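Record format v2
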Amino acid sequence: MKIISLFLCPFKGAIKKLNVIRFKSSDYWEERYATGGTSGVGSYGELATYKAGVINAFISAYQIRSVIEFGCGDGNQLAYYSIPEYTGLEVSKTALKGCEERFQGNRSKRFLLYDNTFPCVSGSLEKADLTLSIDVLYHLVEDDVFWTYLKNLFHHSRRYVVVYSSNFDGIHDSPHQVDRRFTPLIEKNVKGFELMRTIINSHKGSKTMSDWYFYRKRQ
Ligand SMILES: C[S@@+](CC[C@H](N)C(=O)[O-])C[C@H]1O[C@@H](n2cnc3c(N)ncnc32)[C@H](O)[C@@H]1O
């Protein structure tokens, strides 16, 4: 057994890469939610409270009215936010339906299907003061999905973009996660925005490797 695993060892990286190539992130999330799964530990309990604390403080400090979140998930994290006008985009139809039911009658929130195209929602989505990418970037396994998502995230912001994500290159055993060092990619490819602030996550550990990245539109 030991000999076999020694023999397989050099191929482990290649196998991981192959899993990444085969993987379709939207199918993974739809199946996860459709079978009773949630947005994950990062969107519940003390991490949800922590994330909302940072976002609510930013919204209040910069007098943000409208927000578009790219990848709103099951809505648990959203319940902690104080946002005057919120649009949540999601790739999973099941999660979207769950959000619509959970926030039914709440006129400050609406939910739309994210279709991995640019411009998204058939070009009908307007801009908001702030766009959010919270615990989503490292789930965008496919390169084309990642780049289209980034383009949409910045295109739909009038003033600020907040990203909460890991920021290093890494592949995981589970194929639904690929870390990317994304800040240099944004600096090189996204004109018109600048990184105004980063905050190191005080809860970093086994449950999260995300930090905060705040971008503002250049004057
Ligand atoms: C870990 S959850 C985070 C959800 C939410 N932002 C939060 O903080 O609770 C990641 C979410 O990203 C969504 N997602 C995955 N790929 C996406 C894509 N290409 N566009 C938009 N959302 C996506 C998943 O469906 C999932 O709901």
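Residues 25-26, 29, 39-40, 42-43, 70-73, 77, 89-92, 95, 114, 116, 134-136, 139-140, 145, 149 surround S-adenosylmethionine (CB under 6 Å).
The beta strands are 66-70, 85-90, 109-113, 128-134, 157-165, 170-171, 178-179, 193-199, 211-217.
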